[in-house]
Amino acid sequence: MIHLVFNDPDTHVLQQAIELDESLTGEIVCIKDDFAVGPLQNIYIGDGIEARKKWWNDILMGGDFELKLNDSESDDYQTVAQLVGTMRRDTEQTIWIWAAQNKHDVSGYYWLSKYMKEFQGRVFILYLNNLPFFNEKGQIFYPNWLHEIPAREFLKAKKLAREITPSEFEVDPDEWTKLCENDKGVRLLEGGKKLVQEDYDFYDAELKKFITTDWQKAAKIIHQFISKAKHITSEAYLLWRLKVMIAQEMFDVQGKIANMKDFEVKTKS
């Protein structure tokens, strides 16, 4: 059994669940890229892969997340190549794909589905779509991310595993192909597995609402956005969008425009 997740924190809680239930024992593999943002055209061939890698380099360069440049997003292609090789060599091997109801996991699932189609019958999905769980205090909640679920609750979640059907392997890659061809920068989850797309500046209008007449650290603005906005995305993406708006001279700024705590922003005087 191979467990496949789309966030590093998910690997830790799933490992804890395995320690509680030996029937879940297996390798945990993480797809690291955030396919909910960025270019998707020709994403399965060289030009598209390199274009996406360059885009991420531009986003991450010169700020808090520059160290991630050493953890190249293109490694996901190597990861999936190894996964495919394992499945071809061992015809008894199975894959469990774990996904919560968020645009990041669903986008990752769609990207992955192209590679999993040849193993239909041995690929299972555990899609925690609008399902209640108990938190550490024993209260019912609806998780947006796998790592929000206590490890003991994964023992209940494992019962949700089901084969990805032949019809899903036909329809889902086609849906993803349409999204890739539209060449927009932001994916949003409308419900179920339905993704819609917006332009790269989708988050700008909401982000601007947290910029006031008083000087604020960029970190404070971004963290307020993440805690209060309806649609959120990664700090790295928001920092990039804030820098884009600053480059367009939309706000006053002081300090070195690099890390989030290095500079302050306010509305134009």
Attribute tags:
269 residues; alpha/beta; Dna Topoisomerase Vi A Subunit, Chain: A, domain 2; 12 strands; globular
Please summarize the sheet with the most strands.
5 strands, mixed
Determine the CATH topology of the largest domain: Dna Topoisomerase Vi A Subunit, Chain: A, domain 2
* Radius of gyration (Å): 20 Å
Q: Numbering strands along the chain, what is their spatial order in the largest sheet? A: 2-1-3-4-7
Average pLDDT works out at: 92
Please work out how many helical segments DSSP would assign: 9
By secondary-structure content and strand pairing, the structural class works out as alpha/beta
DSSP summary, beta strand count: 12
CATH top level of the largest domain is Alpha Beta
Strand content: 15-25%
Total individual domains = 2
Query: Approximately how much helix is present in the residues?
Result: 25-40%
**Distance from first to last alpha carbon:** 60 Å
